[in-house]
Amino acid sequence: MRDAAFTVYGFVRIGFTTEAAGFVEWMKNYAAKHVRAGEKLPTLFTIHGESELPETTLDHWEGYRGSKPVRIGNDAFRQYQSDIYGELMDSLYLYNKYVGPISYDLWVRIRRRLDWLCENWMKPDEGIWEMRNREEHFVYSKLMNWVALDRGIRLADKRSFPGDRAKWLGVRDQIYEEVMTRGWSQKRHAFTQFYGSEDLDASILIMPLVFFMAPSDPRMVQTIKAILRHPRDGGLTSDGLVHRYPAEKRIDGLPGEEGTFNMCSFWLVEAMTRAGQANPEMLEQARLLFERMLGYANHLGLYAEQTSAVGEALGNFPQAFTHLALISAAFNLDRTLDAQQ
């Protein structure tokens, strides 16, 4: 569902409104049929709308260059990933703004989801990185819960839809205050991965992208600078490539080495681009990082999920997340550079 929401955004951003409309129709007609009132939104779906995909290991396959186990299915369907409400609401808000008005019947379903979120946002979850060994109060999840309510309020006001605005507004503001107090580390001078943690997480770079925080806010600038440091200095960036979180700890419960996460590298470019509107030096740095990232695509211009320390493609290939982040970073960097001329 998270990928679907970002896909709608990507289509809208590059003017593919017919494709965006088709994707929203899929979410509405296929995915929604397995969403039950009073229950959490399923994390993932098949193209036919089924939401249970038990994970199976294919022991008779050795995997690419011996990278077994080879799996089909995805046990993440059992997880609670509360951030997906934010991505979904943001994409529907943009769809209503740039493609076509959503229907009243769809709004009724959205309204129920917002009411449900108001009662459940305070629960821990497995987060965007699908932790297999823990639930935490992930800062990314909380800020995306804020996005869900913020876009719901905006959509209701834009279309004069009925809804419990007072409750949504109160919870939205409560989430904001909590993130600013419990998600901020005075020790690191940065937002951290989850409440009580001192570790950085590159997903926080999405804050200015979803208008949770001004890109030039001192806390955001400090977080960007913290992420820009080399991992040996407590940061997440190595030669312009960004780890999603400290790689050496592998807190996600999975074995093996972690490469840099290409989506996060493009999120860094866009966060720096937005901050660079008031800081020409940071804008130039964003441009250089973007051009460096272009060099890690293959001969077809495609990216994997991750890049190794020697520039090798790792993980899922091609990775939709990476290309959607590329579209957004390219669009905003181009627009900002044009405005500076």
Describe the structure.
The protein has 341 residues and is mainly α. It has two domains: 1-182, no CATH class; 183-341, Glycosyltransferase. The protein contains ten helices and nine strands. Strands 7-8-9 form a three-stranded antiparallel beta sheet. Helix 4 runs antiparallel to helix 5, helix 8 (262-275) packs parallel to helix 10 (320-340) and helix 9 packs across helix 10 (320-340). The two termini are 39 Å apart. The mean pLDDT is 86.
Provide a quick synopsis of the model:
The protein is mostly helical and 341 residues long. The chain has helices at residues 2-13, 17-29, 84-98, 104-120, 139-159, 165-182, 218-228, 262-275, 280-294, 320-340; strands at 56-57, 71-72, 184-185, 190-191, 237-238, 241-242, 260-261, 306-307, 313-314.
Order of the strands making up the biggest sheet: 7-8-9
Largest sheet composition:
3 strands, antiparallel
Count every helix, treating DSSP H or I runs of 4 or more residues as helices: 10
Low-confidence stretches: none
Number of strands: 9
Helix and strand composition category: mainly alpha
SSE arrangement, N to C: HHEEHHHHEEHEEEHHEEH
Mean pLDDT comes to: 86
Classify the helix fraction into a percent range: 40-55%
